[in-house]
Amino acid sequence: MSHKREIPLKEGEAIANEFINLTGDFYERVEIGGSIRRKVPIVHDIDLCAIAKRPVAEFRQVVSNVGGKMIRFGGEYATLMFRGVQINVLFTTEEAWGAGLMWSTGPKGHTIGMNIKADNLGLKFKRTGIYRQSDGALIPTPTEGDIAELLHWEYKPPENRGLAERFDDSLY
Q1: Residues 72, 79, 28, 15: is their CA dihedral positive or negative?
Q2: What is the value of pTM for the model shown?
Q3: If 148 and its partner were Cys, which of 112, 131, 155, 159 is the partner (CB 3.0–4.6 Å)?
Q4: Other CB atoms closer than 10 Å to residue 157's CB: what's the count?
Q5: How far apart are CA 88 and CA 79, in angstroms?
C-alpha cells in the first residue's frame, strides 16, 4: 500500500535532509534521488540512495530511534514513514553507486529507457547494478557518467530526465 501524498519540493527537501541528518551516522554515503533530485515542484515521496556503514539489518532500529516507522524492508530496499511522508531507501555499493542513484532518481520512463538500452547491449540494468547477461557479472558503474558511457547514452542531468517522454518518446 502506497502512503504517497503531494508535498511541495522545498518541504520534501527539508524532510529528506532532516531524516538524513538524524540517521547520517548509519551511512558511508547517502544522496537524495527521485523527484526531489529532478527538482519537480510537487513531490509524492522521498527517495534516497545510500551505502550503509553498518549492517543493513540494523536500519530498522535506526528508523525507529528517530521516530520513523518501517513499512517494508527487504535487505537492499526499505520503505518507511517519517513525518507523515513515505521515504524509500535503496542500499547499494560503491561499485554500483551510479546504477543505484540513477534508479533512485528515475523517472520511470527514463529507467525503462535505460533498461532497453542495456538489453540491446547484452546487459541487465537493475537497481543493484548493471550486469552482463552472458555470465551475470556486475560491471562497475560508480557514477552515472559511467552508465552513460557503457550504454552509449548522452548523459542527462536529473532535472532534464523525463521531459522528452512527454513530447517524443523515440528519444529513448
Answers
A1: negative
A2: 0.90
A3: 155
A4: 10
A5: 5
Place of cell 527517495: 47
The amino acid at 21: N
Residue intervals in the chain for CATH 3.30.210.10:
97-171
Measure the CA–CA gap between 74 and 77, rounded to whole angstroms.
5
Other Cβ atoms less than 10 A from the Cβ of 50: the count is 25
Pick the CATH number of 97-171 from 3.30.465.10, 1.10.3470.10, 3.30.210.10, 3.40.50.1000: 3.30.210.10
Residues, the chain, total? Answer: 172
Tell whether the torsion through CA atoms of 141, 97, 33 and 87 is positive or negative.
positive
pLDDT by residue for the chain (172 residues), tens only, comes to 567 789 999 999 999 999 999 999 999 999 999 999 999 999 999 999 999 999 999 999 999 999 999 999 988 999 999 999 999 999 999 999 999 999 999 999 888 999 999 999 999 999 899 999 999 999 999 999 999 999 998 888 999 987 654 444 444 3
CATH of 7-91, one of 3.90.1150.10, 3.40.30.10, 3.30.460.10, 3.40.190.10: 3.30.460.10
Cα separation of 44 and 64, whole Å?
22
